[in-house]
Amino acid sequence: MGSSVVIDQTLDRQTFATAVLEASHDRPVLVDFFATWCGPCQLLKPILEKLAQEYDLTLAKVDIDQYPDLATQYHVDGVPDVRLVVAGEVKPGFVGMLPEPQLRELLGQWGLRSSLETAIALVETLVADKRYPEAKVQFDHLFDRYPGHGAVAIAAARFLLQIQKPEDALQILRTIEVGDSPHYEKAQGLKGLAELHALALAPVDGSEETTGELAQAFSRGAQSAVAGDYDTALKTFLEIVGRDRKFRNDGARKAMVTLFDCLGPDHDLTQTYRKRLMQTLY
């Protein structure tokens, strides 16, 4: 796990070179140039400490008022100013306050991966290889180690969908709160997909809603979505919208919107079928 080092006024340039530059050959170092009077610095501090633990980094905090020579040496013009030091090289970072999702994205651009991301990648490999009992054990460990973490909930929900347990997936997804961005947005898309899974697995009760021609088409669309054949699923749901938009309380259109959310706004299928849906509706 990562650690935190406070750089104070007793430090000279040689000590900084030892504590940060030389140490970065063994473990990457985040250098946080800050000031006690700086509001954004205080907001950023707990986020950096959290990420240092997750990404196994050393966090070096430099108070620019206590040690202005270092600030001058590294051309610090504003705070907070965060740099990454790897193998003795100080890399450009960012100045100002960044939200946690953007910080994680930046760390990824630097080629860094958190212990959580590594663990999730491992369990996703197990799922892809259909080693489901081993994946279940790993998820249990992840929930113990990272209680309430949205990324774990998202990965677990995808796993449950793959093993045909949409209701369990929905239960986990409901634990992700609105303020947990960006996991909440991903959860909303997966909730819709889980509902489609549930429809695809629903028993036939003999009613028109489950045995009629449109019902059979809707079931085929849901099954295509479950199988990951989103093109066929969207095409099927679009045909239902064109024939009877009121079927299942506008269910086909809602299913298409769910798949758009899962695919993302920039996906080719989203752009193609969103345009076709608008043409069909209007």
UniProtKB/TrEMBL annotation:
UniProt keyword Protein transport, yes or no: no
GO biological process: response to stress
Matches recorded under InterPro entries: Thioredoxin-like_sf, Thioredoxin_CS, Thioredoxin_domain, TPR-like_helical_dom_sf
Residue ranges constituting the Thioredoxin domain according to the UniProt record: 5-165
Gene Ontology CC entries for this record: cytoplasm
Ranges annotated as spanning the membrane: none
Coiled-coil region: none
MF annotations from Gene Ontology: protein-disulfide reductase activity
Keywords noted in UniProt: Disulfide bond, Electron transport, Redox-active center, Transport
Top-level taxon of origin: Bacteria
Family: Belongs to the thioredoxin family.
Protein name: Thioredoxin domain-containing protein
